[in-house]
Amino acid sequence: MNIKLNKPFAANSAVDEFDVRQMKKALNRLGYYQPYEKTGITGIPDADVFSALKSFQKDQGLQATGTARPGDETVSKLSSEAGKKKSGKYIWRAVGDNKVRDSHAELDGTVRDLADSPDPGEEFNCRCWAEFSTPEGLQQELISEVNDSTPKWMEEDFTNHFYNGNGQAITLSQTGYLGEIIEKAREVMFHRVEDQVADKMREIKSGKLVYTTENSYPRLVEVFYVFGGGTIRTKTEGMVTKDGDILSITATVEYEYYDVFTDPVSIREITPLVFSSNPDEAFDWYVKITDFGGTYYVITDRWKTRMLGSIKLTN
Ligand SMILES: [Zn+2]
Predict the structure, then answer these.
(1) pTM score, two decimals?
(2) In angstroms, what is the span from residue 35 Cα to ligand 1's centroid?
(3) What distances in angstroms separate CA 257 from CA 170, 177, 193, 224, one per listed residue?
(4) Confidence band (pLDDT; 50, 70, 90) for 50?
């Protein structure tokens, strides 16, 4: 980028309209200047362009005057820095009136790279500009409180409950494992839910989003042997808004954990084989061990996250 000022550039002097455009465009490319949405980049010397210049000078170790003169150090530094910035994502913005050329109206709201051509503001009298808030994807933040009881249940506690609990359901939080299960779920499934919600967003584009999933997560077993084949259902509810090809969402995701404790330390499967190699005898043992009693019980719990973020409509 080669900025050539025609006149001194200062808030208190009669500036050149083309100078203002050049300065705004360079400062915009570097992320210092954002024009008013209704006007876009114009030759009008608004206060923001001078304060943007001041910030740029400060960051460059130049005297922060907010002014420049043809061919001075500020101008050459601004030219070289804007020229050096050759990559990075931005959103193309166009003024929403009927004077915008069709090709730029089409680019409005699209994610571009600084390497792409044309540049906003590059073509004759173009008022378009770059906005540097690019989509970063979807994120989830836990909004439920985790009140895990301590100490955590041990193996014998789960077994005890099998024999003495009369099948009464328990929660993860009662056993002290809710926090760990949530952490594990964050590792193995949160991103999957985000991907699925992103697909759903692209499908509906805007409006109310309701999306449910149901999956088994055998890998949660690493947390504790008891949690073998836990199922986690999710329900995402929120609103999707569309701006150009950027889709944004605010939603809550409800996670519901469900598991059944049926067989303490797999005693029924293992014991017959240990006691006998005769299948008939083994079956007898199986029946006897079943007679030891015990009632299966379910382990459940739920938690909520807030999902926020933006994605691109395409890709
Ligand atoms: Zn334009």
Answers:
(1) 0.58
(2) 13
(3) 11, 12, 15, 15
(4) very high
How far does residue 225's CA lie from ligand 1's centre (Å)? 61
301: Cβ contacts below 8 Å, ≥ 6 apart: 171, 172, 173, 178, 181, 256, 257
Cis link prior to 70 (omega < 30° from 0)? no
Ligand 1 centroid to Cα of residue 110, in Å, is: 13
Alpha carbon 77 to chain centroid, angstroms = 36
Q: What is the Cβ-side half-sphere exposure of residue 85, based on CA atoms within 13 angstroms?
A: 19
Between the CA of 104 and the centroid of ligand 1 the distance, in Å, is 5
- 114-132: buried (b, 16+ CB within 10 Å) or exposed (e) per residue? eeeeebbbeeeebbbbbbe
pLDDT value at residue 63: 96
Confidence of residue 130 (pLDDT cuts 50, 70, 90): very high
Res 271 pLDDT > 70: no
C-alpha 47 to ligand 1 mean position (Å): 22
Whether the link from the prior residue into 151 is cis, omega within 30° of 0, is yes
Q: Between helices 73-84 and 47-59, what is the axis angle to 10°?
A: 80
SS3 state of residue 210? strand
